[in-house]
């Protein structure tokens, strides 16, 4: 074990520590230069400096005890109130801040589960009904809280099929969820139509606006066609919105909102018998970092509506330029991407593999998401991406021609791995193999992530080894096995 993973016997000098940290980040995505199409939301250096100062001012403060740190409770309450107002909530709408979108969703699911029990509607295994494109945090919440996901497929516009969703709701349904927008294709689900169904059936309805909650209100005000998605709709009972995305706050800041206290109260946890005193917690976390609360408050107060409108316009203008450039390339097509700042595209040319195209763009220094079902590439556009749109489109055109001239690239590098993983019909094999990558990343010999290792060693999953060795012949057999499984399932279920 190297010295770098032991606590040093003597402390290391500040300059040496900072130099080492700068070295560590040399391989990170270059987000300030606009070459990152997700993960980071940047509103300029002046705003960035404000966030650092606000965060540092409350860096040691702990939101666990609102009596000791009344400033944090006040700022949290104001962030919640400002967010509720932005999303057209009335004075009854209440909520809390959380560490991020996943925790906001966990809390909404937990509250729905507790509420179902309180109303004596507790099924053996409660269900969450949601589109296939709902964020995986709902699946995580179901796993944590003993619920089951009941997924509904999409229509041709990449929005949830409302008729299928209505049929999926049953006596075990404790929550229905939809997205504004969904992450893969940037489409807002038909929230008004879903709310009509949930009102009729008496089921809580959560709108996950973690991604778009701090963007869509301003895009709508700019005159773009944005379906109504928020508390203006009777039947929406809870919402989530991330301040650290298009709210341009520091990481670790989201908001979960409820129509009224009759929903929020089921989120809380109270323990009265602990010898150390009565313990009460509004969210998953015990210690709640004051810096994240303070920076979120500072971001919203500093930018104001005019600042958010300006950033939204910059992002939408950049998105429009990006879409126009992609559509000009005959090998590519846009998927969805109508309602927000997402641009999702893929190759429609059999001679240009989408994942090989991704490899070429990555080699040119671009960071973005590879997607599946169907294979596609995802760009989350920010205003600061505007300065590099031309460069990206030039690299994209060059990459298309390079992949077309070198068809062997589809069976090399990450393209081969992503393409294979997307084709395997027995999804448990993929899940097991990704878990093995995580074991390597977080094990005793923690390493940088290497997705290629999924198929590269003797301990990797037997099915993936077969696919890696025999390719399409194995995939054909697996497809047939999966078809038989589906036929048997239909026979059993009638």
From TrEMBL:
Pathway: Lipid metabolism; sphingolipid metabolism; Sphingolipid metabolism. It is a single-pass membrane protein. One of its GO terms (molecular function) is pyridoxal phosphate binding. Its cofactor is pyridoxal 5'-phosphate. The modification N6-(pyridoxal phosphate)lysine is found at residue 245. GO terms for biological process: carboxylic acid metabolic process; sphingolipid metabolic process. Pfam families: Pyridoxal_deC (PF00282). Keywords: Aminotransferase, Endoplasmic reticulum, Lipid metabolism, Lyase, Membrane, Pyridoxal phosphate, Sphingolipid metabolism, Transferase, Transmembrane, Transmembrane helix. InterPro entries: GrpII_AminoAcid_Decarb, PyrdxlP-dep_de-COase, PyrdxlP-dep_Trfase, PyrdxlP-dep_Trfase_major, PyrdxlP-dep_Trfase_small. Its main location: endoplasmic reticulum. SUPFAM superfamilies: PLP-dependent transferases (SSF53383). It is found in: Endoplasmic reticulum membrane. It comes from the Bacteria. Belongs to the group II decarboxylase family. Sphingosine-1-phosphate lyase subfamily. This is Aspartate aminotransferase family protein. It comes from Persicimonas caeni.
């Amino acid at each position: 074990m190297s010295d770098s993973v032991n606590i040093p016997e003597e402390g290391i000098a500040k300059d040496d520590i900072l130099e080492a940290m700068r070295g560590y980040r040399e391989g990170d995505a270059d987000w300030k230069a606009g070459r990152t199409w997700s993960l980071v939301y940047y509103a300029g250096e002046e705003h960035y400096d404000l966030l650092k100062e606000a965060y540092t001012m409350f860096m040691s403060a702990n939101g666990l005890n609102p009596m000791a740190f009344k400033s944090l409770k006040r700022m949290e309450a104001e962030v919640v109130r400002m967010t509720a107002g932005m999303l057209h909530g009335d004075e009854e709408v209440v909520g809390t801040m959380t560490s991020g979108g996943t925790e906001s969703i966990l809390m909404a699911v937990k509250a729905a589960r507790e509420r179902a029990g309180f109303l004596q509607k507790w099924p053996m295994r409660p269900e969450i009904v949601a589109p296939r494109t709902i964020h995986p945090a709902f699946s995580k919440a179901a796993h944590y809280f003993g619920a089951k996901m009941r997924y509904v497929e999409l229509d041709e516009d990449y929005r949830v099929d409302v008729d299928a969703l209505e049929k999926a709701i049953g006596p075990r349904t404790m929550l229905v969820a939809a997205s504004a927008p969904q992450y893969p294709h940037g489409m807002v689900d038909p929230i008004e139509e879903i709310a009509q169904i949930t009102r009729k059936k008496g089921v809580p309805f959560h709108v996950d606006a973690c991604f778009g909650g701090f963007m869509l209100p301003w895009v709508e005000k700019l005159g773009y066609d944005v379906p109504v998605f928020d508390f203006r709709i009777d039947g929406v009972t809870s919402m989530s919105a991330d301040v650290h995305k298009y709210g341009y706050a520091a990481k670790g800041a989201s908001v979960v909102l409820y129509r009224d206290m009759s929903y929020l109260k089921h989120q809380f946890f109270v323990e009265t018998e602990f010898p150390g005193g009565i313990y009460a917690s509004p969210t998953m976390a015990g210690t709640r970092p004051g810096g994240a609360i303070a920076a979120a408050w500072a971001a919203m107060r500093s930018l104001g509506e005019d600042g958010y409108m300006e950033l939204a316009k910059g992002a939408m203008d950049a998105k429009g330029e990006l879409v126009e450039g992609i559509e000009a390339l005959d090998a590519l097509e846009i998927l969805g991407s109508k309602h927000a700042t997402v641009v999702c595209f893929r190759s429609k040319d059999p001679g240009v593999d989408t994942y090989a195209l991704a490899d070429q763009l990555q080699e040119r220094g671009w960071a973005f998401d590879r997607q599946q079902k169907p294979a596609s590439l995802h760009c989350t556009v920010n205003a600061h991406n505007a300065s590099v749109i031309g460069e990206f489109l030039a690299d994209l055109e060059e990459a298309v021609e390079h992949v077309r001239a070198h068809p062997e690239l589809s069976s090399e590098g990450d393209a081969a791995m992503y393409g294979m993983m997307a084709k395997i019909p027995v999804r448990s094999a993929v899940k097991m193999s990704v878990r093995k990558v995580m074991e390597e990343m977080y094990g005793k010999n923690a390493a940088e992530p290497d997705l290629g290792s999924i198929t590269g060693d003797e301990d990797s999953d037997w099915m993936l080894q077969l696919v890696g060795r025999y390719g399409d012949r194995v995939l054909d057999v697996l497809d047939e096995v999966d078809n038989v499984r589906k036929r048997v399932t239909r026979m059993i279920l009638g």
